[in-house]
Amino acid sequence: MEQEKALVEAILFLEVEPVEVRTIASITGLSREQVEQVLVELRSDYARADRGMEVLTIGGGVQLTPKRDLWPRLRERFGRKREARLSRAAMETLSIVAYSQPVTRGEIESLRGVAADGMIRQLLDRNMIREVGKKDAPGRPLQYGTTREFLKHFGLESIADLPKLDEVERERFNLNG
Questions:
Q1: Are 74 and 112 contained in the same domain?
Q2: What is the DSSP letter of 174?
Q3: What is the pLDDT of residues 116-174, one digit of tens each?
Q4: Is the pTM value of this prediction over 0.70?
Q5: What residues contact residue 108 under an 8 Å CB cut-off, 6+ apart?
Q6: 53 and 20 in one domain?
């Protein structure tokens, strides 16, 4: 099993984006169950304090990344050059999409109280949100939802991993009331 573990580790090292278990299985010729077992072993290996990497599940894929506690010291040199911080307005718009998806531009504007065209365009350009369909309502407005890039950016496995909202916050994101 050591050879298989080394092979999976090499794949995770070489892949830039999270890779699905079935893809790893296809590349290696291992079964999904074998890949899952190898990933359990790799996670255990990397959990040691003297290791600088960890195996994360992000958006349904697996990725080898530096441990989160090391990022403050690594970010300046190794952070994405293009990754400008999101403005407060962009974060607010992104939060509305994340917690209320699928959501229309009009619904975002209703919750924010200001026009959202620029923020939506910026988030679409950064691949944080995407069009997910059209609402069954007059004019059939586009609906938006978050992307895998959103999950990756915030280190989430799925949208279910978003921080839970308190009662006041839940009320704020409620589009029905």
A1: no
A2: -
A3: 888 999 899 999 999 999 999 999 999 999 999 899 888 888 888 888 877 777 776 66
A4: no
A5: 93, 96, 97, 100, 116, 119, 120, 144
A6: yes
Element (H, E) at 62: strand 61-66
- Helix spans in the chain (H): 2-14, 21-28, 32-46, 71-78, 88-100, 105-112, 117-125, 148-154, 167-173
φ/ψ (deg, to 5) at 94? -65, -40
CB-facing half-sphere around the CA of 51: CA atoms within 13 A: 13
For 117-161, what is the HEC assignment? HHHHHHHHHCCCEEEEEECCCCCCCEEEEECHHHHHHHCCCCHHH
Residue 15 makes CB contacts below 8 A (sequence gap 6+) with 63, 64
Tokens 């307005």, located at residue: 89
Domain interval for residue 7: 2-78
Count: domains in the chain: 2
Can you tell me whether residue 73 is helix, strand or coil?
helix
Mean of per-residue pLDDT scores for the chain: 87
Q: In sequence order, which residues have a C-beta less than 8 Å from that of residue 111 and are 6 or more positions away?
A: 96, 100, 172, 173, 175
Q: Amino acid identity of 9?
A: E
